[in-house]
Model the fold of this input.
Amino acid sequence: MSREEEKVEEMLRSIYNRMPEISNRYPEDRDIKAAEKAGTRLTYGEIHPKGVLKIMDEEHLDAERAKVLVDIGSGRGKLALQCFHQFNLSRVIGVEISRERYNICKLATEEYVQHCRRQGIRISCEENPGGFEGIIVKRLCPGDQKENAERKDSQCSPKVRTLEIYNVDVGMLKDVLVKASVDIVVMDVAFSSPMPESFVEILKCFKSGTKIISYENLKSAWPVEKSFPYRQYARGDRYMTSWKRGHEFYSWRRKPRKRKRRTRKFIQDGNKAKKSLEVSGAAHQTPKLHYLAHREEDENSSKSSTYSDSENANICSTSTDAPSAE
Done:
């Protein structure tokens, strides 16, 4: 573990040691109802910072090459904060359905903002202005001070990275996630039954190549009547968590989307339309095309007449110059 990674772990420890712990035994009634409606369980645990580093390495989610991360079941927000601070992701989106956990995440995020400001980092924090309960953190991209200054001089907005945490059912964020063009996903969430339809729709909307690390076996929970659009890789890998030193998570990659094939009827209709256009093409020519066509016919006819006249002249001269029988 490098010195920088140790600093990140120390920062997270200093922030979250002052935060309330989550109890699995006595969740709030509103959280129970929200989880039941979403089809998820309120069982709680956190991935250790060392486990997060392994998840984000080149063999798994490869966060160094990603731009957008989504953390479904973000809990107190520790994984989202770590990835936002440690990797140069342009956007990190956390989704948590429990109000109790979201409130703790909000407090931890505010502590993180204060920590960054003490380090001289330009960062801001505000409530989500949209319709969902949430908090948004904006931070200037590291190493881009010169570029940001040039953008400011040219009246362009400086480049920023954003951390967004929402207290909502993930199914309500489908449009947001589609527009975000998500690259990597962490699903540290447990289902109370077969996968809810909202999760099915969210997983289907991700682009080809999107990588996912999940607590649940998504293929086993997927509806039987629907084709599973992901391929599993890195089987059997284990990660350090708060409940187990080495817990197995599942790694998935979105398969390429299949192009829709044209049906035989569509092809036949297209061929008929093409033939009808060829037949009626002459009738729909423009006046200019009519003129060119007639001009070409006139030139051909004149050439043929010239050829016939010269041929007749040659025949006549030949008959005149020929020696007579006398």
